[in-house]
Amino acid sequence: MQKNVLPNLHDEPQEKTMPKKTTKKTSRKKERTDAKGRTVGQIKKELLDVLRKSMGIVVHACRKAGISRSTFYKYREDDPEFAAEVNSINEEAVDFVESELLKNIAKGDTTAQIFFLKTKGRHRGWTERVDMTHEIKQKIAFDPDDEAP
Known about the structure:
The protein is mostly helical. The chain contains five helices and no strands.
């Protein structure tokens, strides 16, 4: 024989506890965008791309990216990663120009050869430095006990 398993009506009702739903409030700030709908991150990426294509010429890159030069310099000042990438792009431009200079030297371009020697050969005397000396023939009296003005 089975025992009656029905609840006793005289017992106090037990509260059923449901697991609480935990909802995390994530504060998602809407990123600011420009008139074209670009975020600052997207603008910086585009700016670096056009800066590379313009061989580091800031004014050309800013025009193509649609931002002011002052905004570019603010990004560079405030964002160390952006500044490092800008420096890298500038070094790439110098490397390119150096390689073109060396190609011209190899072709026998005398002007390129002289320029190279005046910049890279200074330690061997390839410079147009002018030494000037001037002799002053006047005695200067100095009294260590005088106070400075």
